[in-house]
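The material for today's practical consists of a large collection of protein records. There is nothing in a record beyond a sequence line and a structure line. Backbone structure tokens are a discrete shorthand for how the chain folds in space. Nothing more is needed to start thinking about how sequence determines fold. As an example, a complete record with its sequence and its structure tokens follows.
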Amino acid sequence: MILQALYQYYEREKNRLPKEGWGIKEIDFVVVVDAEGNCQAFDPLVEKKGKAWVGQPVTMPAIGPQFLKHDNSGKDANLLWDNAAFTLGLGKNGRKKARYFRTLLRDWFRGKTSDPSILGLRRFLVRFARYRQFHEQVLALPGIREAEMRKLLEEKGGTITFRFSEDAETLIAHRPDVRKHVGLEADLTSTSGICLITGAQDTIARLHNSLEGIADKPGSPARKYLVSFQENQGLDSYGKVKGFNAPIGKRAAFAYSTALNHLLSSDQRLRVGDATTVFWAAQPNRMESLLYQLLGEDSDQGSLAIKELFEAPKAGAPAIYDDGTRFYVLGLSPNAARVSVRFWHVATVGELAGHIRQHFKDLEIVRPQYVTNPFLSLKTLLSTVAPPSAQRRDGDIDSLPPKLAGDFMHAILNGLPYPQPLLQAALSRIRAEQAKKRDNGKPAEHVTYARAALIKAWLNRHNRNHHPQEREIDMALDESCTNIGYRLGRLFAALERIQQDAAGGPDKVNTTIRDSYFGSAMSTPGAVFPTIVRRNQHHIAKLRKEKPGLSVIRDKLMQAILNEGMDCDVCFPAMLSLPDQGRFVLGYYQQRQAIF
């Protein structure tokens, strides 16, 4: 199903995707040669964007799996383009790699073409390899002699292709007579069979093209495949090896891998942690551009996309979402052997839009005045619960459990409960930051808007699927809620505010009961609340003396919380369950917002 959907996407977009035997590659330099093998120019195409050097995307021959990444053999040269080690023999093992590049060029076009550019290129490569003086002359040409360009070429292995001096507009790889002889690499063992994707007779692909754009992780191979088989590992059947175990025709294998590589380099890709998600529709659809804005980076476009998502049905434009178009979402992650499929989601655009609308509706919660943009992306939600690192104070997503990002995305797209580790991570981060200070020494917020919104959404989705009889948690303070965790959270917020009022205001006290007791009050209230309620008597007495009007207001708030089905002398439970700890946090957060 996955490969068929990718194949259909290639058929849909084949007019703007590379043809069979070709692929898109970023080219950094173009070497101009003449028919005698002289080098006329060394033209850089690379540009600096931020801190990175980025080449120009060009359609180049893709003759095998090495099109995207080389293995360590040094034998897998590309045709008519490659990095500086293969094309010019620069860097480690450069002489050996350049020999394979020259051999491939000779063998591929032997007896096939009389195009003078091929003969000129072969002469240039031989002269560059054999004659040191010629070597230095080439590297002294304008465009490469600048220190930064030379460093990029020699140390980082810039990607090089070639142009014929008599043809100022066309690369050698694109010359008409050359193009006729550039195609898919022939398998050493050609086997014909029925393709699993198309159902047609075709030559079966022994090896499939590798993928680029999937996050790397330690231990993952340089080349990443969606379909691959290791020989003699117990996965072979009926004497078949490699791709013959999953018979896919060469044309279909090229089509699906080209489509997937295109998606992995486009705006229809979302990467969170080690999970990379791509998405597309069976037919062109507005949701293809909206989904990244809805779940990607925080931005004004995200807020506008949410507005469009919620208001389109009201504006009488349901066709954007409800036209029955099938929509595909594929979650991938690297692995030691091959790419892992984290999740595969198929739905109509209308169903998908409904689930995403529900996700953002579940996240709605009262927010502080300083939060002007309510949009919370997937990345923001995960980083706000991830442990901080030396590099990222706002949370390092890579330190979260590997499956969490993929499971979270899967839950959003299917309208399912969020994974339980997400609530555990949020509560752990809140507990870890209960005594956190800002740079000026004042208490920093530990129950942030994003964490409170995520906990509220987690609880509502959990109840909706597992306890439908329970009422949903509102956006703002719910004074009628009698849940013990929620009430205790409200009580803790009131006690903290009374302590601050007695000290002269929130900015007048550096250490509150939050710094010492929040984590234990949230998990084991029976061991903590009798102590802080008793100490509160001192604060309320001081407040009555200095600000009697305010003391009456605070006393009424305390009584309203305590008298709603809870006796503060006997009913502090020894422990709270994980969901009730989440309700404690929400009660604390919403009560604080109501007070402010």
